Amino acid sequence: MSLCKKIQYSILHNKKLDWLKREKEWKPDRVDGIFFLAFLIIFLLAYLFGEFFVFLGMFIVYLGGFIGHIRNIKSTHGDIESRLMSPMICIGMIFFSASFVIAISVALGRLL
């Protein structure tokens, strides 16, 4: 079993992440509203105060993408095995994780 598949199954069977499960397919819910509100506040702060809040906005976007992948895995209906075997989920998780690490290193480099 590949590492990516093990990570996906651990996300799928983790009871602490059940609050990320979508109730209705592609309908905005409470979690989407929280991320939209956080992004809107950070966007307004970046517009008013400058560069520091731009990096916080990047952080919110990457965190939202990563949580979006987790929500996709938790909301899997039907044939779970074929859905989790999709390599695009693994590539997306790796991409967002690497981008998140790069954004944090750039933000720390700018602040220090």
How does the SSE layout of this entry go?
Blueprint: H1 3-12, H2 30-49, H3 51-74, H4 80-84, H5 87-111
Helix pairs in contact: 2-3, 3-5
Mind explaining what this structure looks like?
The protein is mainly alpha-helical. It contains 5 helices and no strands. The protein is flat. The model has no long low-confidence stretch (mean pLDDT 77).
Low-confidence stretches: none
Major sheet size, sense and barrel closure: none
Average per-residue pLDDT, rounded, comes to 77
Cα-based radius of gyration, to the nearest Å: 16 Å
Output the helix-strand order: HHHHH
* Distance from first to last alpha carbon: 42 Å
Total strands: the figure is 0
**Relative helix content:** over 70%
The computed structural class is mainly alpha
Shape: flat
Task: Kindly estimate the percentage of residues that lie in beta strands according to DSSP.
Answer: under 5%
Tally of separate helices: 5
Short description:
The chain has 112 residues and is mainly alpha-helical. The protein contains 5 helices and no strands.
Question: What characteristics describe this protein?
Answer:
112 residues; mainly alpha
